TrEMBL record:
The N-acetyltransferase domain, residue ranges: 1-144
Gene Ontology cellular component list: NatA complex
Single GO MF descriptor: protein-N-terminal amino-acid acetyltransferase activity
PROSITE patterns the UniProt entry points to: GNAT
Protein name: Ribosomal-protein-alanine acetyltransferase
InterPro entries with a match to the protein in the record: AcTrfase_RimI/Ard1, Acyl_CoA_acyltransferase, Ard1-like, GNAT_dom
Organism of derivation: Archaeoglobus profundus (strain DSM 5631 / JCM 9629 / NBRC 100127 / Av18)
């Protein structure tokens, strides 16, 4: 698997993944927003087939936002989401960002667990965030906290 920059030839694959993962939304509109306003649109590529993507947008000088992260159903639970997320986090650090934010459905436990594993913390609940009325958790990753170093012997 290779994590690489989005290419125009990836458009159909991303629309398919987005539609599968987020059925009530309009994938064409979403991908247009990512491509137009995104700071990073990365794809997970296996043998020339896009199996996942992450879209990140810069909010301001200090903050980035994960707009969307999705992996094709048959490729889930294989570390692809973790690899996409860790690559995006590293790129945000390289750009000098201090935090990354995102919203996630309160019912989306697999995504919440992935984000928590990567250091994100739930900081708020946004009532009726989604079109179907479901609430969202606002999660934040503080990039200024250094990772714990091993003690010197």
């Amino acid at each position: 698997m290779v994590i690489r920059e989005y290419s125009v030839k990836d458009f159909r694959d991303i629309m398919e993944i987005d539609g599968e993962a987020f059925s009530p939304r309009n994938p064409v509109y979403d991908v247009y927003i990512y491509v137009t306003y995104g700071s990073d649109l990365l794809v997970a590529d296996i043998g020339g087939k896009v199996v996942g993507y992450i879209a990140v947008m810069d909010i301001d000088r200090e903050t980035s936002k994960i707009v969307s992260l999705a992996v094709k159903k048959e490729f889930r639970r294989k570390g692809i989401g973790t690899k996409l997320l860790s690559t995006a986090i590293e790129r945000c650090k390289e750009r000098g960002k201090k935090k990354i934010i995102l919203e996630v459905r309160v019912s989306n436990y697999p995504a919440q667990n992935l984000y928590k594993k990567m250091g994100f913390k739930i900081v708020d609940v946004i009532p009726n965030y989604y079109q179907d009325g479901e609430d969202a958790y606002l999660m934040v990753l503080d990039l200024t906290q250094s990772t714990q170093e091993a003690p010197l012997s």
